[in-house]
């Protein structure tokens, strides 16, 4: 009888991706509370032991699914990518991938499920926030900190800059999308959305000479953190 050894790294990644894909579909179909790990394991053709050893349980599996989604845009903030591009180009690249990710119909549905079920399952809320929004904010704040050292951005709390950038980027359109009041944006609409948001964030909304006295708000915010 031929004994099968441990799967190769590529095979392990394929197996992991298949499991996460299956879990994502099942979470959308059944919700979080109504879905058992047994069902996920059966549909993904893996053992319960595999899920527990790799993810620690259902909340950890959900967190890994969210982390994989955030990988798609936080990698654009890597130091290697940043060194090869201007800060504005990096923000545009990040913003396009971010909006493509969070405006997908399945992601919008997943977020609605999270809002509905997180009060009953605090571990679900923690995993989502840590692997999604918090991780994104941390990568963005590191990007802004590096660019502050290079003299590109004002000296203020880089985490605050990251929060403000994401706030400008999401805007009211995300709420409309979640409420079904707007269709999923296509590539052209996302491109226009991103360029307007990045332009406003980098250059502000006042015309030259219209600000009056010098505004020290940004510096005050940084000093107060």
Largest sheet: none
- CATH C-level label of the domain at 58-206: Mainly Alpha
Strand content: under 5%
CA radius of gyration:
21 Å
Within CATH, the superfamily of the domain at 58-206 carries the name Tetracycline Repressor, domain 2
| Class from helix and strand fractions | mainly alpha
Order of helices and strands: HHHHHHHHHHH
What is the CATH topology of the domain at 58-206? Tetracycline Repressor, domain 2
Number of strands: 0
CATH architecture of the domain at 58-206: Orthogonal Bundle
Mean pLDDT, rounded to whole units? Answer: 86
Number of discrete helical segments: 11
Low-confidence stretches: 1-6, 213-225
Helix content: over 70%
Distance between the termini: 65 Å
The shape is: globular
Please describe what this structure looks like.
The chain has 225 residues and is an all-alpha fold. The protein has a domain at 58-206: Tetracycline Repressor, domain 2 (Orthogonal Bundle), CATH 1.10.357. It contains eleven helices and no strands. It has helices at residues 9-30, 37-44, 48-55, 58-74, 79-83, 87-102, 105-117, 122-149, 158-178, 187-203, 217-224. It is globular, with a radius of gyration of 21 Å. The relative contact order is 0.09.
Supply database-style keywords:
Tetracycline Repressor, domain 2, disordered N terminus, 11 helices, disordered C terminus, 0% strand, 72% helix, mainly alpha, 225 residues, globular
């Amino acid at each position: 009888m031929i004994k099968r050894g441990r799967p190769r790294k590529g095979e392990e990644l394929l197996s992991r991706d298949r499991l996460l894909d299956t879990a994502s579909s099942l979470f959308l179909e059944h919700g979080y509370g109504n879905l058992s790990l047994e069902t996920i394991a059966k549909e993904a053709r893996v053992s319960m032991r595999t899920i527990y050893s790799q993810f620690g349980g259902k909340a950890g599996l959900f967190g890994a699914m969210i982390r994989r989604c955030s990988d798609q845009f936080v990698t654009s903030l890597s130091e290697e990518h940043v060194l090869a591009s201007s800060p504005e180009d990096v923000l545009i690249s990040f913003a396009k991938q971010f909006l493509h990710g969070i405006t997908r119909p399945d992601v919008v549905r997943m977020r609605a499920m999270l809002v509905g079920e997180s009060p009953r399952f605090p571990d679900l809320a923690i995993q989502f926030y840590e692997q999604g929004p918090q991780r994104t904010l941390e990568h963005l704040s590191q990007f802004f900190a590096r660019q502050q050292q290079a003299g590109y951005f004002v000296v203020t709390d880089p985490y605050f800059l990251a929060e403000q950038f994401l706030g400008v980027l999401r805007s009211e359109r995300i709420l409309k999308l979640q409420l079904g009041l707007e269709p999923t944006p296509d590539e052209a609409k996302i491109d226009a959305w991103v360029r307007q948001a990045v332009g406003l964030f980098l250059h502000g909304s006042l015309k030259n000479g219209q600000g009056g006295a010098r505004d020290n708000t940004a510096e005050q915010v940084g000093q107060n953190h």
